[in-house]
C-alpha cells in the first residue's frame, strides 16, 4: 500500500460515493476531514472518562482533568510554546479574536486609536475590530494589495502613526492561499513598538508554526481546519499579554475567590476559560496535532504545494479560467472563476460529479470588492488529496465549462 493510500485509509469519510462518483473533497479551507485517531479520541473520552473537569475529587473527574490539561501540553509543545498556560482553549479563531479585541478594549485601546489590517482579511479579523472602532471612536487602516494580490508591504510605513495600537493580519489568505511575510510585518511593528496578532486559521493546517520563533503577541487558530473537531481552537498569548490582557468573559472556573463585593481571578489560561470548556474538543485537538506530527507538517506543506502548482498549471491551460493570486508561494488554496459564469453554477455542477468545492465570497467581501467580483470558486487541499483527483477535477471542469457556454 502506498504512503498516500495509508493516509487516505485513516479518513473513513473519503470512502464514499457522492452523486454516484467517488467523493473528491476540495473544501479543506472551510474544514478538513477527521482521521480515525481523532474520531476515536473523542468517542473513547465519552465511553470511558466523561466527567466535568478541574473541581472534582472523584476519579473520573481527575482523569478528565488530566486528559484536558495533557491536551493543552501536547498542543503547546507542538507549537513550541514554553509555558502551556499561554495556550487558551476557545471555540475557534473567531472566538479567540473576539477575546483579544474585548480584552484590549477594556483599557489598552482608547478613542482615536488605530488598528492596521490587510485587505485580504477574513471577516472574523475585521468585524470585531470594526465594532470596537465604531463604538469607541477608533479607526481601521488597511494595507492595500499589489496587482498580483500580494500585500503591499511598502505601504505599511505610511499607515503607521503614534495612534497605531496593533497590526492584526492573517498568515495565509483563506481566499487566495497567499502567504504573508510575517518577518516583514514584524520589522515594521517592532520598530514602532506595535503588538501583532497573527490569524493562523489557514496557516496552522499547512505550515510549521513555531511560536517562539514567530514571536508575535497573539496567535489564533481553529482545530477543525487542522484535522481536529469543530468548536475548539486556541488563543496563544505572549507572556506579557498573559499577564496583562484583561479578561472580558468572566464566569465559573476563571476565579480564585469570589465574594459579592469582589472577585480575585485565577492566573494563567483558566482566567480566560469560563464555564465548562469543550473537553472532548481539546482532547480531539491534541489527537489531531499528534496526527499532523505523525505525517510531518513539512511533508504536508510539500504535498499540498505540489498539488497547488500542479492544479494551477493545468487550470492556466484553460482559456476560460481566471485564477486569482497566482503564485509559487501558496498554502493549499486556489481561487478561480470561469469567465462569464457565476461561481455558484460552477460549484453546483462540480458537485454533480462528487467534487466538493466552496463558492462565494469566502467571508472576504472587502477582498471581493478589491477584485471587483461577486465571488470565486475555491479549491483547497489537504494531505489526503491526490493528483488523480486533480486530473478528474480538470476533466469535469472542462465539461462544466462546455455545459455552461
Ligand atoms: C483566515 C481565517 N480567519 C478566520 C477564520 C474563522 O475561523 P472559525 O470559523 O474557525 O472561527 C477563517 C475560517 O475560514 C479563516 O479562514
Which structural traits does this protein have?
single chain, 405 residues, alpha/beta, 2 domains, 7-stranded mixed beta sheet, binds pyridoxal-5'-phosphate
> How many domains is the backbone divided into?
2
Low-confidence stretches: none
How would you state the average pLDDT, rounded?
96
CATH topology of the largest domain: Aspartate Aminotransferase, domain 2
Q: What percentage of the residues does DSSP assign to strands (E)?
A: 15-25%
Tell me about the biggest sheet?
7 strands, mixed
- Shape designation: globular
Would you count the extended β strands for me?
17
Superfamily (CATH H level) name of the largest domain? Type I PLP-dependent aspartate aminotransferase-like (Major domain)
Describe the structure.
There is one protein chain. With 405 residues, the protein is α/β, with parallel strands linked by helices. The protein folds into two domains: 3-30 and 296-404, Aspartate Aminotransferase, domain 1; 39-294, Aspartate Aminotransferase, domain 2 (3-Layer(aba) Sandwich), CATH 3.40.640. The protein is 40% helix and 17% strand. The chain has 14 helices and 17 strands. The strands form five sheets. It has a seven-stranded mixed sheet, with helices on both faces. A four-stranded antiparallel sheet has the order 13-14-17-16, covered by helices on one side. A two-stranded antiparallel sheet has the order 1-2. Strand 1 and strand 2 form a beta hairpin. Helix 2 (36-49) runs antiparallel to helix 10 and helix 12 (343-352) crosses helix 14. The chain is globular. The two termini are 42 Å apart. The model has no long low-confidence stretch (mean pLDDT 96). Residues 92-94, 122, 124-125, 170, 174, 199, 201-202, 222 line the site of pyridoxal-5'-phosphate.
Amino acid at each position: 500500500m502506498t504512503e498516500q493510500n495509508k493516509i487516505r485509509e485513516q479518513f473513513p469519510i473519503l470512502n464514499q460515493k457522492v452523486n454516484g462518483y467517488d467523493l473528491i473533497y476540495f473544501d479543506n479551507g472551510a474544514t478538513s476531514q477527521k482521521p480515525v485517531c481523532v474520531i476515536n479520541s473523542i468517542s473513547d473520552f465519552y465511553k470511558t472518562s466523561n466527567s466535568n473537569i478541574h473541581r472534582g475529587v472523584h476519579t473520573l473527574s481527575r482523569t478528565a482533568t488530566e486528559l484536558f490539561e495533557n491536551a493543552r501540553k501536547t498542543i503547546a509543545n507542538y507549537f513550541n510554546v514554553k509555558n502551556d498556560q499561554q495556550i487558551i482553549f476557545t471555540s475557534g479563531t473567531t472566538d479567540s479574536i473576539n477575546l483579544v479585541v474585548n480584552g484590549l478594549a477594556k483599557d489598552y485601546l482608547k478613542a482615536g486609536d488605530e488598528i492596521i489590517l490587510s485587505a485580504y482579511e477574513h471577516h472574523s479579523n475585521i468585524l470585531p475590530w470594526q465594532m470596537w472602532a465604531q463604538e469607541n471612536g477608533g479607526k481601521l487602516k488597511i494595507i492595500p494589495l499589489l496587482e498580483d494580490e500580494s500585500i503591499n508591504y511598502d505601504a505599511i510605513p505610511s499607515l503607521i502613526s503614534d495612534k497605531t495600537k496593533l497590526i492584526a493580519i492573517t498568515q495565509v489568505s483563506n481566499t487566495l492561499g497567499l502567504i504573508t511575510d510575517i518577518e516583514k510585518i514584524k520589522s515594521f511593528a517592532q520598530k514602532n513598538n506595535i503588538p501583532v496578532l497573527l490569524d493562523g486559521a489557514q496557516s496552522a493546517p499547512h505550515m510549521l508554526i513555531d511560536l517562539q520563533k514567530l514571536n508575535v503577541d497573539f496567535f489564533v487558530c481553529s482545530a477543525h481546519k487542522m484535522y481536529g473537531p469543530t468548536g475548539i481552537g486556541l488563543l496563544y498569548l505572549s507572556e506579557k499579554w498573559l499577564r496583562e490582557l484583561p479578561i472580558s468573559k468572566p464566569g465559573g472556573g476563571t476565579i480564585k475567590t469570589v465574594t459579592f463585593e469582589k472577585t480575585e481571578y485565577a492566573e494563567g489560561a483558566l482566567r480566560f476559560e469560563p464555564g465548562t470548556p469543550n473537553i472532548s474538543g481539546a482532547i480531539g485537538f491534541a489527537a489531531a496535532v499528534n496526527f499532523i506530527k505523525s505525517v510531518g507538517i513539512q511533508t504536508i506543506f510539500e504535498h499540498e504545494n505540489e498539488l497547488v502548482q500542479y492544479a494551477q498549471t493545468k487550470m492556466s491551460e484553460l482559456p476560460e479560467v481566471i485564477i486569482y493570486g497566482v503564485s509559487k508561494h501558496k498554502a493549499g488554496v486556489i481561487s478561480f472563476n470561469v469567465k462569464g459564469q457565476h461561481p455558484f453554477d460552477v460549484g453546483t455542477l462540480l458537485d454533480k460529479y462528487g467534487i466538493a468545492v466552496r463558492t462565494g465570497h469566502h467571508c472576504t467581501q472587502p477582498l471581493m470588492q478589491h477584485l471587483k467580483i461577486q465571488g470565486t470558486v475555491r479549491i483547497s487541499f489537504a494531505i489526503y488529496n491526490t493528483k488523480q483527483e486533480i486530473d478528474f477535477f480538470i476533466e469535469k471542469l472542462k465539461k462544466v465549462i462546455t455545459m455552461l457556454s
